[in-house]
Amino acid sequence: MRQAFVPMGVEVVRHDLCGQNVGDIIRAEQPDVVFVETLSNPLVKVIDLDAVSAAAKEVGAVSVVDSTFTTPYLVRPIEHGFDLVVHSATKYLGGHGDSTAGVVISAQHALLGQLRNFAIILGAMLSPFESHLIKRGLQTLSLRMERHCSNAFKVAQYLQGHASVAQVYYPGLTSHPQHDLATELLGEGRYGGLLSFELKEQSREAVFCFMDRLKLFLPATTLGDAWSLVSYPKMSSHRNLSEAERRGIGITDGCIRLSVGIEDVDDIIGDLERALGGIGFMGEIRKKG
């Protein structure tokens, strides 16, 4: 975002808006635009949409939320007072990893007119076939999201009890600091298909050992496909941040992100079990050495 807007003379200020003092932060900054995610990437922190939109309105800021991770099936942010909602339709809306698209939903006609003008100027015109693929994905969105949520919850529970795992980040777990907010916002049992976890072995070698042993999960920086995907935030989504910046937002060397698919959950857990077994084998070799 800084790379896009700073050259235009726009000041970009980053804050953690997942705390209870979100209103105070927004009032202190007096921004023109407030941009948040419903669930953060990759640590799936939960945003209090009502508190953010209310504070944005109070200071006269346009409120924008990226709701890609939750989709309209789980939450509709305009109903929580947001001005604009952004989706990467490439992810859950399309759902099959075979199309690239983006969606902006506006609560105000005035903003909608500006968006259309920008789309014309920038050439953001979706081809008929890409539109067809996204429409096809929407036809099964509710079914897929139910399975994504169910599978992700079971995977999070499994990882939480594994000896090689230090911590699991998933709002469906009662151990998540914002579990109650997530339940209020998304609904009981509907916490999304994305989760992250940390290996006890905090090293790139351990992460690569884990990923190399996976058979079902595919290594990819995208998410929301029908099949399960794995990524290493340090070398993918957050590769442009310095080590200090990554650690400052809680992304460690052992952090792994999973986009849990709609395969049979026993197959998914079996794949993780086999891959995590390799981490334990690494530890045994080091002890003997």
Q: What would the keywords be for this entry?
A:
about 290 residues, alpha/beta, Aspartate Aminotransferase, domain 2, Aspartate Aminotransferase, domain 1, 2 domains, five-stranded mixed beta sheet, 9 strands
Count of DSSP strands:
9
Please tell me the CATH architecture of the largest domain by its name. Alpha-Beta Complex
Rg, alpha carbons: 20 Å
- 3D shape: globular
And the CATH topology of the largest domain?
Answer: Aspartate Aminotransferase, domain 1
> Could you name the CATH homologous superfamily of the largest domain?
Aspartate Aminotransferase, domain 1
Q: How are strands sequenced across the largest beta sheet?
A: 5-6-9-8-7
Sheet with the most strands, sense and barrel status: 5 strands, mixed
> How far is it from the N-terminal to the C-terminal residue, by CA?
46 Å
Global mean pLDDT: 93
Q: How many domains would you count in the coordinates?
A: 2
Q: Helical element count?
A: 11
Q: DSSP strand (E) fraction?
A: 5-15%
Structural class: alpha/beta
Oligomeric state, counting identical vs distinct chains: single chain
- Are there runs of 5+ residues with pLDDT below 50, and where? none
The first-level CATH class name of the largest domain: Alpha Beta
Helix content: 40-55%
Topology as a string of helices (H) and strands (E)? HHEHEHEEHHHEHEHEEHEH
